[in-house]
């Protein structure tokens, strides 16, 4: 997983084309407000 502060629309399209799901935080939410440091493990079930 990569957390980016922002990405351009063309990069979003490229990510989707490569099978990467670009997720966005809602307004007012960031990695800082969530306390993310980069060493988290995330599991997505049922996908």
Automatic annotation (TrEMBL):
The keyword Lyase applies. Residues 1-27 form the Aconitase A/isopropylmalate dehydratase small subunit swivel domain. It comes from Proteus mirabilis. Keywords: Lyase. Its EC number is 4.2.1.3. Gene3D superfamilies: Aconitase, domain 4. It comes from the Bacteria. InterPro entries: Aconitase/3IPM_dehydase_swvl (IPR015928), Aconitase/IRP2 (IPR006249), AconitaseA/IPMdHydase_ssu_swvl (IPR000573). PANTHER family: ACONITASE/IRON-RESPONSIVE ELEMENT FAMILY MEMBER (PTHR11670). Transmembrane segments: none annotated. One of its GO terms (molecular function) is aconitate hydratase activity. The gene is acnA_5. This is Aconitate hydratase.
């Amino acid at each position: 997983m990569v957390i980016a502060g922002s990405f351009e629309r063309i990069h979003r399209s490229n990510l989707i084309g490569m099978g990467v799901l670009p997720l966005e935080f809602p307004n007012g939410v960031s990695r800082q407000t969530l306390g993310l440091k980069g060493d988290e493990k995330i599991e997505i079930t049922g996908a």
